[in-house]
Amino acid sequence: MKNKVSRESKRDATYQKLQMLRSITNSHAQSKTSIILDATKYIEELKQRIERIKQHIDMAQNSSCLNSYPLQLSVEAQDKGFLIKVLSERCCRGLLVFILEAFEELGLDVLQARVSCSGCFHLEAVGVKDDQGSECLDAQDVKRAVSQAILNWSTQDNEQQ
Fold first, then answer.
1. Which of 49, 56, 151, 153 makes a 20 to 30 Å CA pair with 41?
2. What 8-state DSSP symbol labels residue 87?
3. Continuous H helices in 25-116
4. Whole-number Å distance between alpha carbons of 105 and 145
5. Are 129 and 137 in contact (CB under 8 A)?
């Protein structure tokens, strides 16, 4: 008799725990297996959310590194290309290389450029999409790529200091 009561109390406890798990994971499943599978999927989703949050935190911290290098960036669409301007009041050793690599990744050919790297950093460049690239670019794409290049440069620059 004691054994039967013990088994029933264990079964009730397991049932209660499964129902709690079901409510936490917003599962509509009825069977134990389905509830556990839903919980597993939910845990994986939470792990992905955590990873995305960590990436956002890293990006925010890296962008705060940019505050130590106040930069102005503007990209304007022109007839056949883009006018890209980058200005910093501080010397930004190595930044030009990162920006040119971003141009290359975008498939932008530099038609004309003025660059000053002494005392401050000033870049004014006109870039056009090369003929081999079939994908359309807009000013936002170029600005995003140059911003990422600046971020990569600042991260690398901070690691060297």
1. 56
2. E
3. 32-66, 95-106
4. 9
5. yes
Please compute the mean of the pLDDT values over residues 72-95 and round it to a whole number: 89
Residue for token pair 């950093």 = 121
CA distance 133 to 53: 34
- Closest C-alpha to 73, from 88, 54, 52: 88
DSSP 119: S
> For the stretch 32-67, what's the b/e string if a residue is b when 16 or more beta carbons lie within 10 angstroms of its beta carbon?
eeebbebbeeeeeeeeeeeeeeeeeeeeeeeeeebe
Which token pair is 96? 């030009």
Encode pLDDT of 16-47 as tens digits: 999 999 999 888 989 999 999 999 999 999 99
Does the pTM surpass 0.70? The reply is no
Distance CA 151, CA 116 (A): 20
- Tokens 């501080």 locate to 90
Amino acid letter, residue 112: Q
